[in-house]
Amino acid sequence: MAAETAHLSIDASKAGAKIDRNLFGQFAENLGHGLYEGIWVGTDSPIPNTRGIRNDVVIALRALKAPNVRWPGGCFGDEYHWRKGVGPTGQRPATLNSAWGGVVDANSFGTHEFMDFLQQIGSQAYVSINVGSGTPQEAGEWLEYMTAARPTALAKERAANGHPDPYSVGFLGIGNETWGCGGNMTADYYLSQLKIYSHFVRNDNPSQQGPNQMLKIAVGPGTPETEWTETIMRAWQHHDWSWNIEGLSLHWYTVPNGWPPSTPSTGFGVEDYGKSLKSTLFMNELLRRQETVMDKYDPQKKVALAVDEWGAWHAALRGTNPAFLVQQNSLRDAILASLNLNIFARHSDRVRMANIAQMINVLQAMILTDKGQMVLTPTYYVYKMYVPFQDAKFVPVAFDPGTYTQGSISLPRVDAIAARDASGRLWLEITNLDPEKPVDLDAEIAGMTAKSAKGETLAASAVDSVNTFEAPGAVVPKPVSANLNLKGGRLALTVEPKSVTVVSLEP
Ligand code: AHR
């Protein structure tokens, strides 16, 4: 099909807000096979592992440079009692995972295993404490257990359990969806809990007393309504020394047909594709609405908006436990991921954290496993291609997105973001939403003299193309250098239909 043309104009000298690396955060809830089998196989497993954590998954995740991982929930977080997950593995009590399918949980993956996993993949802890069914004392003691450097009884217990040094906890979520599964609270009731918990959870790690301090994140909204945000931010504006937050969360899933999720994750066509992309682009408006309220009470943007659960929630794969939220991951999900990451980047003065749901085997996953097998999803490759955007400075891109029409749905044909990294390289991302037509891109680059350009693109034959254990290479990035042209301050490139492309320009 004939290519459409898109003109882009970029001034590389106009680098603005930092695209916080924490926008590329992950979420690993104790749900289905997210932790058990996905990460934890146990020390006796024939699956190659290091202290019970599977090696293949660790190697794959290291390449993503995941800045933080949120754990243990989600809804599970408000049912989790940390004491059951420490001590000799064989002596930990079995409990029920009532949040997700009522399965028996041996508690083999607890605090130490989570921290070991983070150390293996090179990431930071985002721990979600239990507000719904816990107490401030329990949460305070967990923090002391994890972070106390001085010889308290809890610090000694941690040492006896194998870790004398205090752990670092980068982020602390004070409850999860407390308007729903986290206790069905009103905003006012949660606010009173937030003040209590925020005061009584303390991080004693000496390395976290200065600029590396643990950031506390309050539960925020899960709908486009703004009352919840109003309540928390109005109070925050006048907060005293006894409580504080550095972030407010936002949860939003792409569920094109509404709840319960019904879009298939395999075997769908361009109608479902168009509907999903339309639905996911609402993220921009959602952020705008919440930001308007936050700007009113916090014009200096001290409190970050943390989109700590987002992604596509499709129908559960046939034959799987519906409580385990298992879905395939297609090229559609990759394009949907790039659109959301671009939205976050454009909002990066306020949105400084985001966590895709979820990392392994659950919802829009990076990785799928089945016993000893592992496959990387199209969404994984988007995260890998976006690594250079972590902590790079956002550079505005002027362009006419054009229109791609799918039935009664109108969508932008292209989307693009740019950023400058610490070494002066310019990174450009272009998403072609159109499933049929390639786009001839003509980008005018001012503010730098680019000597060379290279790039890679993620595309496939169909919007529902997926990677499987049998065919893991159906949707993988490939180089685009052959059709990349750099002349007189202009970049010319043809991008394939339904694709995600990242190009770097070397100064
Ligand atoms: O990610 C699955 C669930 O979605 C989480 O546990 C919960 O916070 C949200 O409703």
Q: Could you please describe the fold and organization of this structure?
A:
It is globular and about 70 Å long. The strands form seven sheets. It has an eight-stranded parallel β-barrel with strand order 2-5-8-9-10-11-12-13, surrounded by five helices. Helix 7 packs parallel to helix 9. The chain is built from ten helices and 27 strands. Strand 6 and strand 7 form a beta hairpin. The protein is of the alpha/beta class and 507 residues long. Bound molecules: alpha-L-arabinofuranose. The site of alpha-L-arabinofuranose has 10 residues, from loops.
Q: What is the mean predicted local confidence, pLDDT?
A: 97
Which structural class do the helices and strands define?
alpha/beta
- Name the poorly predicted regions: none
Form type: globular
Q: Give me the count of strands.
A: 27
Ligand catalogue: alpha-L-arabinofuranose
What is the radius of gyration?
23 Å
- Number of helices, counting only DSSP H or I runs of 4 residues or more: 10
